[in-house]
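BUG: 3D viewer hangs when loading the predicted structure for this chain

Environment: internal workstation, default settings.
Expected: structure renders.
Actual: progress bar stalls at 90%.

Input used:
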Amino acid sequence: MFCTRDENCDGILHSKCSKNSLCICRSNNIEINSTICAPLLGEYCVNNEKCAPDNSICIHNECRCEADYSSVSNDQCKLKILGKPCSDDSECETVKYAKCSAYYSACICTGYTIALNSTFCAPLLEGFCENNDECIRMNATCVDNKCKCKPNLVPDSNTGCRKADSPLSCLRDTDCTKFINHSLCHRNKCRCDMRYVTLNETVCAPMYNHSCQELEPCAIRNSLCIDNKCQCKHGYVYHEFKCYPSKLFL
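Structure tokens produced before the viewer hung:
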């Protein structure tokens, strides 16, 4: 409909006058037909008016998914499947990577995936995937059918990726040790054991004369793991917590 100002479009809820002098739907509203603009999820609505996504309703002047549905975006409500009672896998198949658990008699995510909500099973890091969308919530991409961290990111346990210079999150010590040797969980962040020194966010290095494994880096510059102990490399001697060239003491 032709218009010169927004008031000309008042007969259609959620509409406005465009720069082309035509009545159009406001942002976050979808044109249903020539007389109806329907709001997306989370947008203002008048009680009992139609909301744009299927299986959504207007509750307290806001478009929301119906009781047995969950929002997966602002324009889609999906049936809540995970956690619902079931008798066989076919009742869970609308959620990818879900199955019916014989033990719980409910829909659950299969191994190497985790439930992000009641409608989505996400692969864990190194878990099987078919496209990037399945891994993107972890800041990961699908490479050779496995979820892997994006460039410049490192694993944060097996459920996500983080910047290399940010601490690894954890709930228990084992969450740390499987990624960082000689680390422990302190206040939900991985830290080096007090007997070790942080070289970077993924390496905790032994001090001089502490036990080590072959090829493992040692904390002190010019020291190496020799006979399973951190010692100064050939041509260097230990003095005041450093390894100095031995010729300095001749």
